[in-house]
């Protein structure tokens, strides 16, 4: 749509309003002609040519459906891809939300249906698998980093960032950390940002594969603290709390050497400024 508006503007194929009209209103009219073209083309493709655009897109992305299965690769590959694109400033959920969520929630629905009919849940590869055991504190499992910054920093900036970000991180809001440190395009934290949640996904996969923790069967509000959300999402299985805490500790261990290097560098910069 944006490219079409630009092309129409270059060819002067837009509706221009008088000079007295506010710019915001005038710009909205400039999008009318490209919008009409898109609507007409969509109508022709769908209603006249009977072209199933949604079916075509589903077919194109159908191989990704593999990652909706209860496999090891389904646990770690999405985490790897989501964190990688986050590092370049692109929100990782652009991969998960339109492509993987349908498979994950289909699995969750199958679990609830099984329980409703007196059976046991059949899938552990659900969105809640990632929400409560991998994205603890947000993308990159950054609650652990916030804890390290808040309680183990020596540099003033590091300690301040920890104090500011730890409360939001507890409730899975990590944008202040991602953009405040920043983590994006930061060589100090690129490796643990990818490695920590990937390791957590692997551990969670093994725990659920071996039936050490109950499968997720409910959608808990994503702003709950990790252990509480994990407990609720698994039908109040106390072992989910333990697994969530273990994963946080694993993440802290992975972040630790990178955090120490970053904090040491910040301390050095602060001494130079003084």
| Overall spatial form | flat
Helix and strand sequence: HHHHHHHHHHHHH
Ends apart, CA distance between termini: 51 Å
How large, in whole angstroms, is the Cα Rg? Answer: 23 Å
Which sheet architecture does the biggest sheet show? none
Low-pLDDT runs:
none
Q: What is the β-strand count?
A: 0
Average pLDDT number: 87
Count of DSSP H/I helices: 13
| Helix share, percent | 55-70%
- The class by helix and strand makeup works out as mainly alpha
Write the layout of secondary structure elements.
Elements: H1 2-10, H2 23-30, H3 32-48, H4 53-60, H5 72-87, H6 93-116, H7 127-133, H8 143-152, H9 156-170, H10 175-180, H11 190-209, H12 226-233, H13 238-273
Helix pairs in contact: 5-11, 7-12, 8-9, 8-13, 11-13, 12-13
Task: Explain what the structure shows.
Helices cover 67% and strands 0% of the residues. It has helices at residues 2-10, 23-30, 32-48, 53-60, 72-87, 93-116, 127-133, 143-152, 156-170, 175-180, 190-209, 226-233, 238-273. The chain contains 13 helices and no strands. With 274 residues, it is mainly α.
In short:
This protein has about 270 residues and is mostly helical. Helices cover about 65% and strands about 0% of the residues.
Offer a few descriptive terms.
274 residues, mainly alpha, 67% helix, 0% strand
């Amino acid at each position: 749509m944006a490219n079409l508006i630009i092309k129409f503007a270059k060819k002067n194929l837009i509706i221009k309003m008088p000079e007295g009209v506010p710019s915001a209103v005038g710009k909205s009219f400039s999008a009318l002609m490209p919008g009409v073209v898109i609507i007409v083309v969509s109508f022709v493709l769908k209603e006249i040519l009977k072209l199933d655009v949604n079916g075509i897109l589903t077919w194109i992305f159908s191989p990704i459906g593999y990652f909706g299965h209860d496999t090891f690769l389904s646990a770690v590959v999405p985490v790897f891809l989501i964190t990688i694109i986050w590092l370049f400033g692109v929100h990782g959920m652009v991969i998960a939300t339109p492509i993987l969520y349908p498979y994950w929630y289909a699995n969750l629905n199958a679990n609830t249906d099984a329980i409703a009919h007196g059976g046991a849940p059949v899938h552990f590869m659900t969105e809640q698998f990632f929400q409560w055991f991998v994205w603890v504190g947000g993308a990159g499992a950054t609650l652990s980093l916030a804890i390290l910054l808040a309680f183990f920093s020596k540099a003033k900036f590091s300690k301040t960032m920890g104090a500011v970000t730890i409360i939001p991180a507890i409730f899975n809001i990590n944008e202040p950390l991602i953009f405040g440190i920043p983590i994006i395009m930061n060589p100090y934290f690129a490796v643990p940002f990818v490695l920590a949640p990937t390791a957590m996904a692997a551990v969670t996969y093994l725990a659920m594969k071996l039936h050490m923790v109950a499968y997720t069967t409910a959608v808990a509000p994503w702003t709950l603290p990790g252990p509480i959300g994990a407990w609720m999402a698994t039908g109040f299985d106390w072992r989910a709390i333990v697994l969530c805490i273990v994963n946080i500790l694993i993440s802290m261990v992975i972040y630790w050497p990178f955090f120490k290097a970053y904090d040491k560098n910040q301390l050095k910069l602060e001494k130079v400024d003084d």
